[in-house]
Design brief:
Elements: E1 2-7, E2 17-21, E3 30-39, H1 42-49, E4 59-60, E5 65-72, E6 84-87, E7 98-102, E8 106-108, H2 115-135, E9 143-146, H3 152-163, E10 167-172, H4 175-183, E11 188-191, H5 197-204, E12 210-215, H6 222-226, E13 229-237, H7 251-255, E14 260-262, H8 266-269, H9 273-288, E15 296-301, H10 305-313, E16 320-324
Parallel strand pairs: 9-10, 9-12, 10-11, 12-13, 13-14, 15-16
Antiparallel strand pairs: 1-2, 1-4, 3-5, 3-7, 3-16, 5-6, 6-8
Bound molecules: NADP nicotinamide-adenine-dinucleotide phosphate.
NADP nicotinamide-adenine-dinucleotide phosphate (NAP) binds near residues 43, 123 and 216.
Length: about 325
């Protein structure tokens, strides 16, 4: 028997319940992980609210965690009981003391990375890996725009961009968040709650705009983002913090300068154990080299997952938040 967070209907954080739960025995290619730390991610709020559909209700929640392998299925190779592991994808249910998932979603943790750091960085760090290194391969000296730069994904992006010699302009909603983004490597910040973002981007880039804009805010920033992309540049729309982008008129891409748009997900990039491991190796390498520091802004007991989600949705958090079972 274990404890987990579960929800039986969609709604606000109040639908999350902390309940007893009997995890299944691992199938032939599955493992059971005893979670030591669990990652809080904005995507968890989309499943809870119903913006994204879970396979069935009642459902567990969360896809990111770190801990020890406690049991392995008969066909699992490469992982053994006692291994220190982390994961960022796979079935919902990471908000739990025990999580059963396919071994193909696991990576082994280097000794230098503790469980809290791993839970804080796996999903968000792998996301930054694919966005900066695969969706668009940013080059030293380029100036890029990244929305919500003081958030979990955002602070990692600031540091990764600095490590690559890329000038990241980060949007934020307060002076405190601006200072944090700067301290983590943002080249410049814009307070999008009060400043004219396209005008500031024009100024900062001396009229050139950005070859790539990374937008996870969605509805509220879509139009702004389009105005910050250089001709034939790329708008990467990768989240819905303010609500989903809908009703896009393709002609706008022509009007704004023959732009490209993509709507990627981590699951579309880390879609094999080999790719996942390659991406994680790059992330862990930057952490080991001291180029990325994992900023854990808050820690909550697993039982308080609803409070943690409330804080995330109301823009009170900075950096990563972890839940502790
Ligand atoms: N597609 C993918 O593969 C992928 C993977 C991971 C994450 N994501 C997306 O990346 C984003 C960041 O995720 P995260 O977990 O690191 O969260 P986060 O950035 O720590 O939190 C979201 C931030 O968005 C900003 N925001 C702007 N408008 C908002 C609104 N109306 N309500 C709430 N927040 C608003 C807030 O920063 P300010 O106060 O500074 O505005 C807030 O702190 C999310 O949109 C998530 O869905 C996508």
């Amino acid at each position: 028997m274990a404890k987990r967070i579960q929800f039986s209907r969609h709604g606000g954080p109040e639908v999350l319940e902390y309940l007893d739960y009997q995890p299944a025995e691992p199938g032939p290619q599955e493992v059971r992980v005893r979670n030591r730390a669990i990652g809080l991610n904005f995507i968890d709020t989309y499943y809870r609210s119903g913006l994204y559909a879970p396979p069935a209700l009642p459902s567990g929640l969360g896809t990111e965690g770190a801990g020890e392998v406690e049991a392995v299925g008969s066909e699992v190779t490469g992982f053994a009981v006692g291994d220190r592991v982390a994961y960022a994808t796979g079935p919902l249910g990471a908000y739990s003391e025990l999580h059963v998932l396919p071994a193909s979603h696991l990576v082994k943790l280097p000794d230098a990375i503790d469980f809290e750091q791993a839970a804080a960085v796996m999903l968000k760090g792998l996301t930054v890996q694919y966005l900066l290194r695969q969706t668009y391969e940013v080059q030293p000296g380029q100036t890029i725009l990244w929305h919500a730069a003081a958030g979990g994904v955002g602070l990692l992006a600031c540091q990764w961009a600095r490590a690559l010699g890329v000038k990241l302009i980060g949007t934020v909603s307060s002076p405190q968040k601006a200072a944090l983004a700067k301290a983590n490597g943002a080249w410049a910040t814009i307070d999008y709650s009060r400043e004219d973002v396209p005008a500031r981007v024009l100024e900062l880039t001396e009229g050139a705009k950005c070859p790539v804009v990374y937008d996870s805010v969605g509805k509220d920033t879509w139009e702004i983002s389009l105005d910050c992309v250089a001709p034939r540049g790329l708008l990467v729309s990768f989240g819905n913090a303010s609500g989903p982008v809908s009703g896009v008129n393709l002609a706008v891409l022509a009007q704004k300068g023959s732009l490209y748009v993509t709507r990627p997900t981590l699951f579309g990039y880390a879609n094999s154990q080999e790719r996942l491991q390659t991406m994680a190796d790059e992330l862990f390498g930057l952490i080991a080299a001291g180029k990325i520091q994992v900023e854990i802004g808050r820690r909550y007991p697993l039982a308080d997952a609803a409070k943690a989600q409330e804080a995330l949705s109301s823009r009170q958090t900075t950096g990563s938040t972890v839940l502790l079972p």
